Amino acid sequence: MSDIKVTIDGKQVVVPKGSTILQAAQKVGIHIPTLCHLDLHDIKMVNKAASCRICVVEVEGRRNLAPACATPVFDGMVVKTNTVRVLNARKVVLELLLSDHPKDCLICPKSGNCELQELAETFGLREVRFKDAKQSTYRKDYSTTIIRDMDKCIMCRRCETMCNEVQTVGALSGINRGFNAVVATSFEVNLEDSVCTHCGQCVAVCPVGALSEKDYTWDVVEALADPDKVVVVQTAPAVRAALGEEFGMEPGTLVTGKMVAALRRLGFDYVFDTDFAADLTIMEEGTELLDRIKRFLDGDKTVKLPILTSCCPGWVNFFESQFPELLDVPSTAKSPQQMFGAIAKSYYAEKLGIPREKMVVVSVMPCLAKKYEASRDEFAVNGNPDVDISISTRELAHLIKKANIEFKDLEDEDFDKPLGESTGAGVIFGTTGGVIEAATRTAYELFTGKPLEKVEFEQLRGMEGVRTATVKMGDLDLNIGIAHGLGNARKLLEEIKNGNPRNFHAIEIMACPGGCIGGGGQPYHHGNIEILKKRAEAIYREDANKPIRKSHENPAIKELYDTYLGHPMSERAHKLLHTKYTPKERV
Amino acid sequence: MSKYKMHVLVCGGTGCLSSNSSQIVDNIKKYLKENGMENDVQVLKTGCFGFCEKGPIVKILPDNTFYVQVKPEDAEIIVKEHLVKGRKVERLLYKEPLTNKSIEDSKHMDFYKKQMRVALRNCGFIDPDNIDEYIARDGYQALGKALTEMTPETVIEEVKKSGLRGRGGGGFPTGLKWEFAHKNKADQKYVVCNADEGDPGAFMDRSILEGDPHSVVEAMAICGYAIGANKGLVYIRAEYPLAIQRLRNAIKSAREYGLLGKDILGTGFDFDIEIKYGAGAFVCGEETALIHSMEGGRGEPTTKPPFPAESGFWGKPTNVNNVETFANIPVILLKGADWFSSIGTEKSKGTKVFALAGKINNVGLIEVPMGTTLREVIFDIGGGIKNGKKFKAVQTGGPSGGCLTEKDLDTPIDFDNLLAKGSMMGSGGMIVMDEDDCMPSVAKFYLEFTEDESCGKCTPCRVGTKRLSEILTKITEGKGTMEDLQTLKTLSQTIKDTALCGLGQTAPNPVLSTIETFWDEYVAHVKEHRCPAGQCTALLQYKILEEKCIGCTACSRVCPVGAISGKVKSTHVIDQDKCIKCGACYDKCKFSAIVRQ
Question: Which terminal Cβ of chain B has fewer Cβ within 10 Å, N or C?
Answer without folding.
Answer: C
